[in-house]
Structure formats: C-alpha cells, structure tokens
Amino acid sequence: MFASLEGRSVIVTGGSKGIGRGIALRFGLAGCQVLVVARNFKSAEAVAGEIGAAGGTALGFAADVTRQAEMQAMAEAAVESFGGIDILCANAGIFPAAKLGVMTEAEFDAVIGTNLKGNFLAVSACLPAMRARKNGRIILTSSITGPVTGYPGWAHYGASKAGQLGFMRTAAIELARDGITVNAVLPGNIATEGLSVMGADYVQQMEAAVPMRRLGSVADIANAALFFASDEAAYITGQSLVVDGGQILPEALSAMQD
Ligand code: NAP
Fold first, then answer.
1. Is 119's C-beta closer than 6 angstroms to any atom of ligand 1?
2. Is the CB of residue 17 below 6 angstroms from any atom belonging to ligand 1?
3. Cross-sheet strand order for the sheet of 57-62
4. What is the pLDDT of residues 120-156, one digit of tens each?
5. pLDDT value at position 194?
6. How far is the centre of ligand 1, averaged over its atoms, from the C-alpha of 192 (Å)?
7. Quick check: CB of 216 below 6 Å from ligand 1?
8. pLDDT digits (tens, 9 = 90+) for 90-123
C-alpha cells in the first residue's frame, strides 16, 4: 500500500490537454493541490474545474514554458496558493513534423525551446521552493522517440526528448543532496489531442506496431508519474520508465506476426 500524497502541492505544465490533463486529474484524485499550467488560461482553468468538481483542489494558470519570467510567476503562484512546491511534472511539449531538408531553423528552435529549454526553465523556477523544504519530486515527460527510437519528421523532436534525459541525469546528481529526485516517463503512442492531429492512418500504423495492439491512455502515463512522486520512490533518481505497451521490443516485423 502506498502512502498518501494528500495535500502535496503539484505543478503540471501542459496540464490542459492530453497526458498533462491525465496527470493533473490523477494527482487531483490523489488529494494533491494542483496548479494546471498551459498558455491558454481557459483550457487550464477547465481542467482545474474538473478536478474541483471531483472534490479536489486545483487552479488554472497561464504560462509559457519558453519564458523565464512566466515560469517564475508559475512557481510563485504555487507557493502563494498551496504553501510550497512538492512535485513538478514538466510535461508541456510540442511535436510538429518536418523532414530534414524542409525543416526550418525556426521549427528546430521552437521544438528544442519548448521541450528541452522549457524543462530547464520550469525546473529552475521551482528549485528555490523545493530546496527550502529539502524535498521535491521532478518528473519529466520524455518519449520513446529520441531516447530509444526514431521516426521520420521528428529529428528535432527526438533530439529534444533525448536531451531531456541528459538534462535529467546531471540534475539528479546536483539535486540529490537537497532531497529532490528527477525522473522521466517515456510514453509510447498515447491517445491525446496532440496525437490525433497525426491522422487516422498514423494511429492505425502505431496500433499495429504495439504488441498490445492498442495505443496507451493518459492514465497509463499518469500512474507512472504518480509512482515517481510517491514516498516509496524516494531512492529512485535519474531514471527513465518506458510506458509503451511493448512497442520498443520487437526485433523484426516477424516478431509482430501472430
Ligand atoms: P497535447 O495533447 O498537444 O497537449 C500539449 C499540452 O502542452 C497542452 O496543455 C498545451 O496547452 C501545452 N503546451 C504546449 N506548448 C506549451 C508552452 N510553450 N508552454 C506551456 N504549455 C504548453 O500533447 P500530449 O500528446 O499530451 O503530449 C504531452 C507531452 O507528452 C509532450 O511532452 C510530448 O512530447 C509527450 N509525449 C506524447 C506522446 C503521445 O503519444 N501523445 C508520446 C510521447 C511523448 P497550450 O497550447 O494552451 O499551451
């Protein structure tokens, strides 16, 4: 039986949709106080409202993870509203596709800026509050794409997601003595608003490539994040957990035949 996370203060970036919404709802149901963060305030507030309607405590907050001042304002809002920051789920990310030869410098910078620099800015902003308590949990949403696999159109995305793990390993060492752990969840293909933009053909191809023959749910990822946030995971840091229904396992197409 896991110890309760009731009352813990949690920030979820990219909490208004998809995986981040799933994480926010899961922590809200676990009795945490959740700051739901996205650029669009109304959609962040709507998820906070869902948590409130289910009996939890949550607030929406508008902030862009690529802007340092907005990340600092986010951390200040959590401290002011919830008394501190126990858990940061650095989840906001974008995955626009562009193949090499067509991909522009601006597209590359946007993906690295949101997915990788955004982690740095969110973590940096939350550190003073976590250090003050000598306790904290940082959970990054990375991906199998980059750290383990590749996919055409996502060279910039894969680089950003692999970069998150490089960032994580050094951050885990630097923050260990402050009682702060840093870990990452690596989702496979998860049914989200963002993924649906890829189209029905993409979704069908991915389902066929997963040994479990289905996409993952946002709850699958949220449960992994909840584990890293638990007291029972206190001695785990700098680690990554693949949650993908077995997608990275087959050595050959024949391994997927019945
Ligand atoms: P999604 O459905 O598109 O949702 C993205 C969320 O991030 C939204 O809340 C969005 O809200 C927010 N966001 C985007 N840019 C932001 C910024 N600059 N500042 C603050 N918030 C921002 O995406 P998802 O599929 O749930 O993906 C979430 C994370 O999981 C990403 O890091 C992604 O790389 C990772 N992931 C997803 C999958 C998958 O299959 N879906 C697989 C592997 C990894 P606003 O637009 O209002 O800001």
1. no
2. yes
3. 57-62, 33-38, 9-13, 87-90, 136-141, 180-187, 240-243
4. 999 999 999 999 999 999 999 999 999 999 999 999 9
5. 87
6. 9
7. no
8. 999 999 999 999 999 999 999 999 999 999 999 9
- Residues marked active site are found at 157
At residue 90, the 3 state secondary structure works out as: strand
pTM summary value? 0.98
Average pLDDT, the chain: 97
Q: Are 111 and 97 in contact (CB under 8 A)?
A: no
Give backbone dihedrals phi and psi of 165, rounded to 5 degrees, phi first: -75, -35
Quote the ligand 1 centre to 135 CA distance (angstroms): 27
DSSP E strand boundaries for the chain: 9-13, 33-38, 57-62, 87-90, 136-141, 180-187, 240-243
Domains and CATH numbers, the chain: 9-242 (3.40.50.720)
Closest by CA to 244, choosing from 166, 188, 168, 199, is: 188
